[in-house]
Amino acid sequence: RVIAPWVAGADAAGAAVMTEMFDTTKVPNAANHYNYCQAKAIVVTALGVSAADLGALDEDHVKSAACLDPVATLQTGLPTVVTPAGTYTPAADVGASLAFSDAVRSVVALVGDNTNYAAVTAMYLSSGLRGIANMPRTGEPDWDKFAAHFGSPTWMSDLVDRATATPNTYGKSPGARAEIIEKTLMDAVAVQVILSNLHHATMAHSADVTRAHWDAGAATFMGSTSGRGRTVYERANKRGANYGTLAADGATATANTKIVTALNLGATGTATVRTAALATVRDQLKVIYAQATLRYAFLVDRDVADNLDYYEHQAEGLAFYNVIAPYVAAADPTGHAVVQGFFDIANTPDSYNYYAFCAVKAVMVKFMGGMASEMGTLESTSMVACATTLPTGLPSIVTPAGTYIPGSDVGAALSFSDAVKATTSLIGDATDYAKVKSTFKALGLAGSAEKDRTGETTWDAFRAYFSSKTWMTDLLYKVTDGITLTAGPAARAEIIEKTIRDAVATQTILSDLYRGTLAIDASTRRLWDAGAAKFLGTEGARGSTVYNRADKRGANYGTLDGVTSKANKAILTALTLGATASDTSSRTAQYHIIVTQIKVIYAQCTLRYAFLIDADVIGALDHAEHQAEGMAFWRVIAPWVAGADAAGAAVMTEMFDTTKVPNAANHYNYCQAKAIVVTALGVSAADLGALDEDHVKSAACLDPVATLQTGLPTVVTPAGTYTPAADVGASLAFSDAVRSVVALVGDNTNYAAVTAMYLSSGLRGIANMPRTGEPDWDKFAAHFGSPTWMSDLVDRATATPNTYGKSPGARAEIIEKTLMDAVAVQVILSNLHHATMAHSADVTRAHWDAGAATFMGSTSGRGRTVYERANKRGANYGTLAADGATATANTKIVTALNLGATGTATVRTAALATVRDQLKVIYAQATLRYAFLVDRDVADNLDYYEHQAEGLAFYNVIAPYVAAADPTGHAVVQGFFDIANTPDSYNYYAFCAVKAVMVKFMGGMASEMGTLESTSMVACATTLPTGLPSIVTPAGTYIPGSDVGAALSFSDAVKATTSLIGDATDYAKVKSTFKALGLAGSAEKDRTGETTWDAFRAYFSSKTWMTDLLYKVTDGITLTAGPAARAEIIEKTIRDAVATQTILSDLYRGTLAIDASTRRLWDAGAAKFLGTEGARGSTVYNRADKRGANYGTLDGVTSKANKAILTALTLGATASDTSSRTAQYHIIVTQIKVIYAQCTLRYAFLIDADVIGALDHAEHQAEGMAFWRVIAPWV
User: Fold this and answer.
1) DSSP sequence for 971-1031
2) Widest pairwise Cα distance in the chain
3) What was the pLDDT predicted at 1120?
């Protein structure tokens, strides 16, 4: 007033501003030194005071009051404040209120990632914002509500002070602190100033004071043109853009339009109008900050989901929510707790399945009530379908295992299970993998999986083991993106589901719980509760939780306590005790109990799927799905196991490697997994329980389990040492599985037990495993007409009642040799073949190692391996190495295996060829040896059943190769070993014929077979008889149905034996030759049940009536004085008696059915009758021709008897029924009787002639006796 008129004289408007400034009826506004700077601008200019005369004011803060130059640019708001939302006309200068926005701008300009907080604090003070924030406003309803809610009248400055303090523990990043500062000043302080001024304008004041307050509120809302970017007005525009609530101009929020309209109404309206206008402004401010709150809930939700730094968004959300928090708390205390807990920067926010967004949206919608629609729809959220009712976990989470009582709302953590369910429900046989991946990310699971939890002991151990911070999604995305497991939808599904539901879940749960042990306070209790909630899940999604996994395994392992697992009860108890623990050590102890039970659950899972891999192999089922599941479960515990047993963990990883085909014999996978996992994790037998599924009870794992062999570091044999790249225990166990089955086989075999062991040991599954596309396998499947040809054999041999195999011993041999040899060879070749295909290096090596290990076998099972078979044959053939025990074939194979293991693809292919060639050597040796043994059995009239069955089983190992190279030779060998056939062999025919086939088959490698022991005296003919295509005689031609070389060789044997007889006969040699060439065996064969043989046995009172006489003669017991007589007895007994009995036996048995085997018998009888061309002079056929010549019963050059017999043989061969063939048989018998009636009568006549001529009758009498004995029983 001392200078006012002078100033007014020069600047009337300025003087009005000054008068308003000092009006003691009004509360002054002062931001950014507005009053000082404005006064300086007006007064100094109006009065013309020089700078020198004026001087410089030297008081606190004045130096930071950098007034604008020229000072005239300071805004007053006069005549109007213009915005796109509308124009406002204040009654007087509102520059101080407009300057609020500039003050905010000046402080915020100093805030950033490298903030000088001292400068910020100074500017906050000097700009007037601290004073404005802390101005006492007691009695104002909004202010009182906020002060009470925050527990301080200086709550806004308290926030700024915490954010600017140095050193600082508030806020998790500089950015977060910056957001707290900016939003508190620009939003919280501004809103309080706006509402305070507008409220004062509704109180009982003079008109100009009322208007001044209203104008100040309006000006603070709108801000200066330079500071509008830091106003509530601008905040509204930003949120309008986010929510689609902009006016037609596309830039102005509808909230701003409504507020400016209300401000204008209130400026000139009545008190009632002002009060209504204030309510409108307050409502629209709630709209703006409900929008802001929800937007930042969504942004934090997405930060968590995307594993991004959420700190800034959480801090922003908190600052925005502070603007409306007291209103929300008053209207919805429970909802407020949810939002406050989410934005509390002391807490780690949880959000899955868009929970944070949905929960905050629900609170905001409820809070806004009828105005909720004014919020609009937040951008990028149209796809979010929020549930009507969201989980809270309050007052408790109830499960069958018990009840958990969280300390606060745990809806966000409970929503983890909903997210898991929503994601995994997308998985199936026709999965949209891109959608699964995007959902996994969108619902927050990826963020949890990829969260860096460095410093947490469990997470650190897993990161180190997998050499990646993102080990879970590394695998998951390979599967969803089709980089691995592309061919198996079921396997892909299992990897995805178990990685999400189990691996991600356990890491997330244990992380929450671990962090909950670091202190005892509200924030760590929230973490502990969050871990508990994620473990238990919502009721609707509990089937997608670790809790549910525990119950499933409890059911599998007999560890249920009522309807829930013991593990779940133990965990729930620990969760409850940990929640209420009063110190960190107590809570940590409960944490360790939970970790132990998690290990139990996933040890059960891992073991079960190791078992199921075995079971898949047992059932010849596709293993891929179970192997993938097992891998996913194994990864949940792998680092823990590796920490105690690195080598064991490597074995387990190999077992579940989905790029490799698992080997599983003798329950190796289950037993090995049990040995490794249980020991490494220290899981007690009581906690683990006993897996109770098909076959598991027969999985008698070795005790101690440590005795299971892995093949590491090497597999050692006398033939050489092999070094596998990884565990080959499952392949080594093949030999133990064979041993376990064969141990049950014998003369009194329990075939049901054998069948069960064959199944449970995994051998059936291994034998039947589909290998289509593998050249060896395809060849064998085609040859035998079945992909399950090996199991077909075993099934026939173990069937009860049984018609396959002629003795228990024969059945035993089929079983043993099929498993030990045929199945083993197929497995070896299959693995080695796969190793020559296009695979990754480790898959290639795994296949090769598996083939090598199957060949060599375990130390305990080596006696049941192909390796051991080679050694046995090497001993039989003189093909052992210098050590006298190791087959040269084995040495060559082991050398090839080592070359292939480390060689190139070309080297491996060559090595496979070497292995295959040496296997052919081994089984060509085995085939020939058993041909010789059957040959001797027949020659010695011994039971040939076992040797024939063994020979068949051995021959099966190479039969398709032989058949491809020599179909005719194969037919000979196959027919000889066919256990439905009665083997014939005379004159070493079987040995010689099979040898000829094997030599031809082996080609240039035949010499590698060596020489079979006890065969050096056998001189095989260069050409052996076959009878094919026909046997041609003067009496006619006979066409056999198959090779009858063995039967034709009967005549060669007769000729070879009888050619030794003469005047100076070596009777011992005759006898030994008779035996060696198979004639004795035929003579002494028990043919009980055959009518002719039975009649002769009865007549002679002996089963060996022919050799009874023969050996008396050869041994000199009778007819010792007459060499000619002895010769005749020997010759006729062999050539006639033995021959007729053998012929008629074959023919008789050929009448018993019409099939391939009886046709072979009929053909054999015919061949023995007709003989080879070179030995036909030693046949019954020749005898008939001689007698025909004697009796005038020749028809041309051959006897009528022979023609009649040949006709009958031909008709009988082609007969379609047994009665027709039998009729022909009787015709033949009749003609045999004719022939030997002729013989008998002739020698009766010759005896007469000898007496008449006084000649020596002995020879003729002896001949006559021999002929007579051929028909005596009939007579």
Assistant:
1) HHHHHHH-TTSPP--STTHHHHHHHHHHHHHHGGGGGGG---TT-TT----SS-----S-E
2) 194
3) 65
Rounded distance, CA 922 to CA 893, Å? 11
Contacts 24+ apart (CB under 8 A), 484-490: 484/658, 484/659, 485/624, 485/628, 485/658, 488/622, 488/624, 488/625, 488/628, 489/428, 489/429, 489/430, 489/431, 490/429, 490/624, 490/625, 490/628
| Stated length of the chain | 1275
Q: What is the 3-state secondary structure (H, E, C) of 713-742?
A: CCEEECCEEECCCCCCHHHHHHHHHHHHHH
Q: For residue 966, how far is the Cα from the chain centroid?
A: 44
Q: How many Å apart are CA 873 and CA 919, to the nearest integer?
A: 11
**DSSP character string of 865-914:** SHHHHHHHHHHHHT-B-TTSSSBHHHHHHHHHHHHHHHS-HHHHHHHHHH
Rounded Cα–Cα distance for residues 320 and 318 (Å): 5
Taking alpha carbons only, the member of 1085, 1223, 1207, 1048 closest to residue 1151 is 1223
Instruction: Encode pLDDT of 108-165 as tens digits.
Output: 999 987 889 999 999 999 889 999 999 999 999 999 999 999 999 999 999 999 999 9
Helices 1067-1076 and 1045-1058 pack at an angle, to 10 degrees, of 180
Q: How far apart are CA 1212 and CA 79, in angstroms?
A: 133
Q: Write out the DSSP string of 910-948.
A: HHHHHHHHHHHHHHHHHHHHHHHHHHHHHHTT---HHHH
CA distance 363 to 385: 16
Sign of the torsion formed by the C-alpha atoms of 93, 98, 100 and 103: negative
The contacts of residue 672 (CB under 8 Å, 6+ apart) are 610, 651, 655, 708, 710, 727, 729, 730
Residue 22 has pLDDT above 80, yes or no: yes
Q: Residues 47, 50, 52, 57: what is their CA dihedral angle, to the nearest 10 degrees?
A: 50
- CA-closest candidate to residue 1031, choices 1184, 1210, 1196: 1210
The closest alpha carbon to 1059, from 1131, 1007, 1011, belongs to 1131
Question: By three-state DSSP, how is residue 81 classified?
Answer: strand
**Which residue's structure tokens are 């001087």?**
55
- Cα dihedral 808→810→816→819 (10° resolution): -120
Mean pLDDT of 520-538: 97
Identity (one letter) of the amino acid at 730?
A: A
The region, left, alpha or beta by phi > 0 then psi within -120 to 50, assigned to residue 452 is: beta
- Token pair recorded at residue 1137: 């008696």
Amino acid 706: pLDDT: 42
β-strand 564-565 against 560-561: which pairing, if any?
A: antiparallel
Specify whether the CB–CB gap between 447 and 306 falls below 8 A.
Answer: yes
Helix (H) or strand (E) holding 180: helix 174-183
pLDDT value at residue 64? 52
Which residue type occupies 638? Answer: A
- 784-811 confidence digits (pLDDT tens): 999 999 999 999 999 988 888 788 999 9
Q: What average pLDDT is seen over the chain?
A: 93
Q: What is the pLDDT of residue 699?
A: 55
Which residue would you say has higher pLDDT here, 18 or 1198?
1198
Lowest mean pLDDT among 30-34, 830-834, 963-967: 30-34
Closest CA to 567 of 537, 541, 532, 602: 602
Q: Taking a C-beta distance cutoff of 8 angstroms, is the pair 1044, 982 a contact? A: no
